[in-house]
Amino acid sequence: MNIGIVGAGAIGLLFGAYLSESGHHITFLVRETNKVDHFYIVKKTEDPVQIVCDIVWDIADLEKMDLIIIAVKYHHLTQLEDQLNSLPLHIPLLFIQNGLSHIAFLEHLEQETIMIGSVLHGAAKKNNSTVQHLGIGPTYIGSYKGEWHFINSFVENNNDQFPLILTPNIEQMLVKKAMLNCLINPLTTIARVSNGELIANDSYKVILKDMYDEMMEAFEEWKERLPWDEVVALCVNTGANRSSMLKDFENGRMMELDTIVGAILERATQRKQTLPILHTFYLLLSEINKDGDNNG
Question: Pick from 168, 183, 203: which residue ends a domain?
């Protein structure tokens, strides 16, 4: 299968590496400023392995793809709207952004088939051309509109270290991930600690539990879907990882604040509920974000 990937960030490279290993022909669309000849992946402590792929700089080079995966961050999506609508309408698109804001963006696209993915892997860019796979997790895929006839074979033909799972309710998966990100990302960024410290440090654990309690009060139906033990387990299992928001902060990039934290705050407001701790963190991080690199 010919698969195009728009964006060569950590998750885009991760998808490209494992889909290439599964026998797909991968083509990355990157910005003209990213003039690299090869991409690489590091698994565990192994040496970098070159990703078998093509690299292009013009979206017209993706017009014969069987699937195009959109792997840029949410705040870059609006810049791509005209380019995406210029593609043949029959090519399925798969969006794998964090947060919830990109769902509204999809309404502006003309493609016949659009899918959404929720990625639970840990990954980080080591440099401009290399991604490191930090933690294995499933990628849930669901339909936004249309039907891709090859979705079952695509999902079944995957690497054991890169499982793909079809779900009938992808929006619920996105909300769950956004909630977990709201609990972990802002606090780790403000405290500048790895995920595990939120449980190991007594003070951070109290703040985390208070955030969790106020979120469950606002979203009562999530008490069974997202128990406290699952939040603790995630922090422990990804203990050495630094959250994506913290990594963006440390690298001077714009943090994905509105699409993750802002989206959950907005949903709480729609219910006439408040999330005081999370809102405070949002305001603090918004000020920090003003110094972020909008092109990051």
Answer: 168
Q: Which CATH number does the domain housing residue 272 bear?
A: 1.10.1040.10
pLDDT bracket for residue 296 (50, 70, 90): very low
What tokens appear for 173 in the block? 């998966």
Q: Are residues 194 and 158 in the same domain?
A: no
Tell me whether residue 274 is exposed, middle or buried, using C-beta atoms within 10 angstroms of its C-beta: 0 to 12, 13 to 18, 19 or more. middle
- Token pair listed for 214: 């106020």
Run of H or E residues at 171: helix 170-191
Rg (CA), the chain: 19
Per the structure, the count of domains in the chain is 2
Structural domain includes residue 295: no
Same domain, 27 and 158: yes
Give residues with Cβ within 8 angstroms of 60, minimum separation 6. Answer: 86
Give the model confidence (pLDDT) of 83-111 as tens digits.
999 999 999 999 999 999 999 999 989 99
178-221 pLDDT per residue, tens = 999 999 999 999 999 999 999 999 999 999 999 999 999 999 99
Q: Do 110 and 190 belong to one domain?
A: no
Pick the closest to residue 177 from 11, 8, 5, 6 (CA basis): 11
CA torsion sign for 106, 112, 116, 117 is negative
- Residue (of 178, 182, 166) closest to 280 by Cα position: 182
Looking at 119, 141, 168, the residue that finishes a domain is 168
